[in-house]
Amino acid sequence: MPEFSGLNHVSLSVTDLDASQRFYTEVLGFRRILDVGYARICIHQRTRFVLALVHHAEGTGGRFSELATGLDHLGLAARDRDEVVEWEARLEAAGVPHSPIQDMPLGYHLNFRDPDGIALELQAPTAQYAAVLADVAAQEVSDEEVAALAARLLGPPA
């Protein structure tokens, strides 16, 4: 099977390029690197993550819903729970509504939305989950081994 080299970019359809650009640059720290009229290309310089914000002239203009087929949410990585707490304070200072931090078996989650209602999440894995991800990424792991790792993290399936 051919392989791909990694995630290249994510492109989001938005209703207002200026409002979306302000949110992603001022709140989340992206930098706009290109404006092609109907789209703005932004980069998070430290991670090199590229985000395209696109306005389609024929777009429906409705609010995002994770209940529609397609994107459920965009997950952004945080280093650890302390960094999630820092992001919670950042979102509060910027006036961005958000969920409380959720401590879950696989990690710590903070959910919020962009100006179009696109669901975003900051997530930091637990140490145990990070170790499992590192193991699975570094070597061939059988389906049985993956099931055992999942059971160790989550408990047996209900």
TrEMBL record:
InterPro entries: Fosfomycin_Res_Enzymes, Glyas_Bleomycin-R_OHBP_Dase, Glyas_Fos-R_dOase_dom, Glyoxalase_1_CS, VOC_core. Signal peptide: none annotated. Residues 6-125 form the VOC domain. Pfam families: Glyoxalase. Keywords: Metal-binding. Gene3D superfamilies: 2,3-Dihydroxybiphenyl 1,2-Dioxygenase, domain 1 (3.10.180.10). The keyword Metal-binding applies. This is VOC family protein. It comes from Phycicoccus sonneratiae. The lineage of its organism: Bacteria, Bacillati, Actinomycetota, Actinomycetes, Micrococcales.
